Amino acid sequence: MDKTYDPHAIEARWYHFWESRNDFAPKGVGAPYCIMIPPPNVTGSLHMGHAFQDTIMDALIRYHRMLGDNTLWQAGTDHAGIATQMVVERQLAQEGKTRHDLGREAFIERVWEWKAQSGGTITRQLRRMGASLDWSRERFTMDEGLSDGVKEVFVRLHEEGLIYRGKRLVNWDPVLHTAVSDLEVLPTEESGFLWHLRYPLADGNGFVVVATTRPETMLGDAAIAVHPGDERYAHLIGQLVDLPLTGRRIPIIADDYVDPAFGTGCVKITPAHDFNDYAVWQRHRDTTALQAVPYNGLINIFTVSASIISSDTPGAELIPNDFRGLDRVAARKLVVEEFGAAGLLEKTDDHKLMVPRGDRSGAVIEPFLTDQWYVKVAPLAGPAIKAVETGEIRFVPDNWKNTYFEWMRNIDDWCISRQIWWGHRIPAWYDEQGDVYVGRSEDEVRRKHKLGAHVVLRQDEDVLDTWFSSALWPFTTLGWPENTPELKTLYPTSVLVTGFDIIFFWVARMIMMGIKFTGQVPFREVYIHGLVRDSHGQKMSKSKGNVLDPIDIIDGIELEPLVKKRTAGMMQPQLAKKIEKATRAEFPNGIATHGTDALRFTFASLASNGRDINFDLGRVEGNRNFCNKIWNAARYVLMNTEGQDCGQNGGEVELSVADRWILSRLQTTVREANEAITSYRLDFMAQSIYEFTWNEYCDWYLELSKPSLLNPASTPAQVRGTRRTLVHVLETLLRVAHPIIPFITEEIWQRVAPLAGIQGPTLMLRAYPTVNDALVDPAAVKELEWVKQFVLGVRRIRSGMDISPGKPLPILLQNGSTQDAGFLASNRQFLQTLARLESIAWLTANDTAPESATALVGDMQLLIPLKGLIDKNAELARLAKEIDKLRANLERAMAKLATPSFVDRAPADVVAKEKERAEETRMALVRLEEQQVKIQAL
RNA sequence: GGGCGAUUAGCUCAGCGGUAGAGCACUGCCUUCACACGGCAGGGGUGGAUGGUUCGACACCAUCAUCGCCCACCA
Hints:
Helix content is about 45%, strand content about 15%. It has 31 helices and 28 strands. The radius of gyration is 38 Å and the shape is elongated. A hairpin with a 5-residue loop joins strand 17 and strand 18 (about 435-440). The two termini are about 55 Å apart. By secondary structure, the protein is an alpha/beta fold. Helix 19 packs antiparallel against helix 20, helix 24 (about 680-710) packs across helix 28 (about 820-835) and helix 29 (about 870-895) runs antiparallel to helix 31. It binds one RNA strand through strand 7, strand 11, helix 8, helix 12 and strand 24.
């Protein structure tokens, strides 16, 4: 083995090995365990969030595979409608074209080409992460099978009246020219103005003043509303005002929606361009007052691009000439100007408001009147709420269910149609009269509705919201609507692993659709992890220039390419300089190679319950060092076992205290690891493995194995015992750690397993370790603890007195018990080697100890004669420090024991423990104080 | 306006009703035959504030402060 761990050399090889053997596929026997990957955007690339999430899922999957479960991690990608279409449209724009220049078919062809070209990136990167997805079952949301599932669901919901088409206000993206759902709108606080506009009363008796943040919409005003109880305006209700600029007259109506305390207490009502106003309109639409307004009050003033409509559009006759065709910004300016010029602008106040922006385009979203398809959600939400209430689905951590409930109990109908081309086209056809027919295909529609060939049918132009197909992912990937064997055995799936940001987008909708179409929940548990942020808690984003690419952490990257990567293709190029500077400051030498295992171990360590994680490269570095530590421990083990008798072929074996101790500690680690991963605490699992490996196996056991192996007096049975323990513990440890760090463990395991008498092609398919109670050995643990205290005592003296670590020391013992004598007898060899002792000798109680430095192991005193070794002051200082510490402890304990309420009311065992502790401290203190006096006297 | 989470060492974070932990960073010593991506020994925290429950609170409860997130129709 190489002296230094080199992740590159091992990672590619093993992934290919596993995949080519089809080791990721479910075995078909055992308890079912299944995770659906949240399908990444097919043309996207891996970011830190994926890497984190995939590490968690892969650890769970590998763990269950090792448990012998029938394990499937379903692979696949998402077509990501709007996102993908935007990318291709941007490419076209560079050629000076729009999608309309190509036409629908050619454009879609172009997107498929783009998918073919870039679609392999993310799956390649997932492989780099070691993700053991079953690629043989890979699915894409626009596959034939999944598309059939989408149509099936659409048709069935439509038949039940749970999908309907309707004209109503939607969130309209005027840049993308499509409707979007409520969830795709991000309200953002921005600075604006509150304009106070005067609307003259028709009877000539002055004005009403309305406050608005969107003056341009006044062109579509249908009414003025006041609160019915507002005495200031009671006399105006039913009157008309002259709507400036338009020559129209509109009524003053009363509605509870108005808050008399805000603004002037008068609100302009623009039903076609505001959700609240639309609701007011619905309550008043049948009143004569509104019926007198053109279009019954529902006056649209915008085109799909949010410009004012022009003369060839119905409604344009209501718009003054100089406004027609203006975009909304210009129209706003002109409205304000003209109000000002007419003396109708009362005042303009600065105002903070929430501006709705599209999550993809960033454009200001317009409430806009269009025909769209909707899912009636309430009937689906009921059972979905119940499933979580009854615990059929469990959220981890539990508190996320509150978020879920809150949304589900207030859910609105879901707008599922999108005016884009890339996606599942809506399975609905129109005849020339505009009648709509829904079916799985045009043929089916014709048959079902007896439409002859002479009837011209035109399919709906729109496609479905991407999340519609995602909602079906857990069952369509398993073959639904066919009742496949996979669906029968692996559904409901075991756990869904995801971020809280898509509980609404995805989790809730999967639960609704899953229950509706399979009669069962889609998953038993939902594990919600936090978001990956940068080391200071900032969200990673291109514009902040703080994005880390997981692949760069794995492979390393030079400074110049890193700078280039971070500053290329900026939406705001002016930020590039700052980002470059910050990047050069943070990574003066670029990013070093860390390897996949180190990155995965880091994610696991950070995966504590549910909170966001601040990603610190320092931790990856520490974990890379940890991998190196394992690597070198393995080298040591192999150097001492390969080609040697490790007892794998029988032969007498004798275990030392150290052997028994490490085997016992191993059981604890195995137990902790199992408990941790079962409760989704990969951080505990990682910590447990780290501490055992470094602080016990390496720091102590490997050192303890040296005297045993090197001592010529060791018997063959003893040497065999040590070798076997070295190998056995390492082999077990590799299995324990494999779900988190698959590559390095497999690489080492291949060489270690035969020495442990294990034959098998791959660690990945070996059994996950379970606790062997026969190896739990408290006596060995106690005895070795004594050895450690002994060694540590000597080392502290060395360090405190500045004695060279290599210098063998003579040591005298005094005041030992029978147990101490026994321990010494069986561990003399260990002590001499680890503490570098020249000799160990007992003093009787009557012997006068020479001037010495002292340490305590329980009641026993270790004495290292000072003669020629040190200066008195150093030892005095060391003693003084120890004594201070002990005194403080003793005082605290004594104070506690002197409190009657404590002694009376605390549990007896706590009091006893406190007494014992006080007594031990007191004894130790006495010893050290005697010693202090002695040294002082020199 | 509601709801949730966070506040522990210089930094990033665990934990726990019974004497505060890890990684990184820091100090001293050590090129010891697995590992300098290392070894040994150290330094460093009045646990955001206030009050309460308790024999005992960093932990449980209440209030407050600060930060972050989610939801919400105030024009």
